[in-house]
Specification:
The complex is a heterodimer. Chain A is 36% helix and 24% strand. By secondary structure, chain A is α/β, with parallel strands linked by helices. In chain A, helix 3 packs across helix 4, helix 3 packs parallel to helix 5 and helix 4 packs across helix 5. Chain B is built from nine helices and no strands. Classes of the chains: A alpha/beta, B mainly alpha. The structure holds adenosine-5'-diphosphate and magnesium ion.
Chain lengths: 272, 254
Amino acid sequence: MTIATADTLVRVRALRFAFGPRTIYDGIDLDIARGKVTAILGPSGTGKTTLLRLIGGQWKPDAGSIEFDGIDVHQQSRNALFALRKRMGLLFQSGALLTDLTVFENVAFPLREHTRLPESMIRDLVFMKLEAVGLRGAANLFPEQISGGMARRVALARAIALEPDMVMYDEPFTGQDPISMGVLIRLIRGLNQALGLTSVIVSHDVVEVLSISDYAYVVSGGKVLDHGTPEAIRASKSPLVQQFLNGEADGPVAFHYKSAKTYADDLMAARA
Amino acid sequence: MSFLSPLTDSLRGLGRASLFLLTIIATIPGAFLRPRLIVQQLYSVGVLSLIIIVISGSFIGMVLALQGYRTLVNFGAASSLGVLVALSIVRELGPVVTALLFAGRAGSALAAEIGLMKATDQLSGMEMMAVDPIKRVIAPRFIAGLIAMPLLASIFSMMAIGVAGGHAIGVELLGVDDGSYWSQINQAMHGRDIADMLIKATVFGLAISWIAVYQGYHAAPTSEGVSRATTSTVVVSSLAILALDFVLTAFMFH
Ligand SMILES: Nc1ncnc2c1ncn2[C@@H]1O[C@H](COP(=O)(O)OP(=O)(O)O)[C@@H](O)[C@H]1O
Ligand SMILES: [Mg+2]
């Protein structure tokens, strides 16, 4: 490992996880460095979202461990787990805003749930967070009245409302137009520096993510294929990593899903 | 053993639903610390159902009065029309029809809302913000359903018996004496009948709220899953209401 252990906020060791018969992780090790932006790259369906839910303690590993700041996430009581979660924000791909609350109330939600701050202070805090993501003007809109990119920024404001140590982003750039993507990229990098956050970005948008990360892991087929600085990843000798980075249809990962029959057999069967 | 699997499946479902109910019940004291959330839900389930309850109550009272009058008048007992309407409504139709309507209107909406919150990661999102969705989302809705049912059944019964329902037809249209309509009700109906009505309504409210929040919370997180949860809520609730009504009536019948 190139990272000194004291600087590691999240330590994943020999993690195994399966959905029924389907193995998602087959013994992986990961280190998330404190105060840095770490990217976890991999094709859709590899289990990137699953990894974030495992780190957040929503799902339990079948074997192995995940430590957050030296605390084993899956050995905690419910209350202790909830206390840990206040130190990590997770940005869902969809934003996961509460649809019956305004933008303002969505950002105020964790504050109202977890603090006894007076209303005036909640107001100030919410407006500060909304200002940081550039959406103070949208405070009174409902989630259905704002665009997908704005919803992600509101979710980001909500995720940093309790001033966590770490924010995890699930596919923050997917489905964004170039302008919102640029906004989000600058925002993630900017917040990381301004708040001293640890950031984890899970994505298949390789170019954008590598441009803002300090360190990256490439996962596929339940294994870590490669890890290193963005330069090292770009220069990776692994053919799988290269196929993934360059978006080639053919390579170690086949374009065609496995079929028991040949193409000709399937076509002829219709005629029989 | 595969022929037993529908049985073991439904037993397993019942077991899961019971555990879920216990989890909800455990959060109820905490939920009462935030009455605003309950009042909000009470407003939404109550107002959602109020119009349909008022209209249905009136019509059922009117139909009952028409049918009852035709029979009673042959025996020269038309002045007992009030009793017939009142007892049928309070003992049976009030709680049962209210519950069926409540399941269709509020129960289905509840299941769909919770299922959709699940499908759009709102519930997971809450969990990741260290907020327990059972306490924050499920318990207030469950409690509101429980409180709303006896209130709605009472409103339904008053509409059915009173000026817009049985009274309108019996007294205004068919000429039954106003005084005997009410005085006979007064004599024949006891506090016990009203208490039984409230018990039935509360039990039905419990069943509907339980089924609705369970179906919503355990819906598959897809549009198909949400629609299936909504349908099951109405079907399962309706059957549960009729079965429970039989059991409760049997117990109250002496
Ligand atoms: N709750 C679940 N039950 C069963 N399988 C699931 C569940 N959630 C996800 N999966 C499967 O696990 C795999 C990994 O999912 P996910 O972590 O969402 O992938 P990614 O985020 O990398 O696209 C997918 O193939 C998905 O179908
Ligand atoms: Mg995903």
